[in-house]
Amino acid sequence: GQQVMQIPQYQHVQEGEDFTTYCNSSTTLSNIQWYKQRPGGHPVFLIQLVKSGEVKKQKRLTFQFGEAKKNSSLHITATQTTDVGTYFCAGPTSGTYKYIFGTGTRLKVLA
Amino acid sequence: DTEVTQTPKHLVMGMTNKKSLKCEQHMGHRAMYWYKQKAKKPPELMFVYSYEKLSINESVPSRFSPECPNSSLLNLHLHALQPEDSALYLCASSQTIIPYEQYFGPGTRLTVT
Description:
Chain A is an all-beta fold. Helices cover 0% and strands 55% of the residues of chain A. The termini of chain B are far apart.
């Protein structure tokens, strides 16, 4: 079946360093969403990308959707301790609106 | 109000018990979801309701029974659960069936003994 994988699984960075997580789908996605889940919390929607090659920015966060619409990335510039959490991408299964969450990347920021 | 509320926050139940999880939203959303999340894993979709009708059932065992009494409420009835059903149960809602953003509730941490 369709799989959505993320790498890396874990990332520890020093505060102020940059961070990137990559999301790869086994099938083409009509759109992709990104969520952040703080430790002990629930997923919070960050952004949705729809167009091939789309790039969106939110302050220190930059999101990209691949040209083939099978991959995406989230880049955080100059991480802060508030960025700690697990970042999930989520994409719809083919022909449905049923979203599959990626495996997640857990970010730890060391002060 | 962009909040999804869930009760209870924590639930411990025996394998012979019957309990219910509740979820409520007042954003006028017409799609509501139940997800199950195990520790250090992504959320897994269980059920989707669209306009109060069950739209998707991800082959969930019948010991989990969803109910959508109205457009603001979503219940998950639990009966004869197994210890492996212990997890965080998340409710979410969206404007209509996705691809709209999903708003998640804080979840119910369920432990089956």
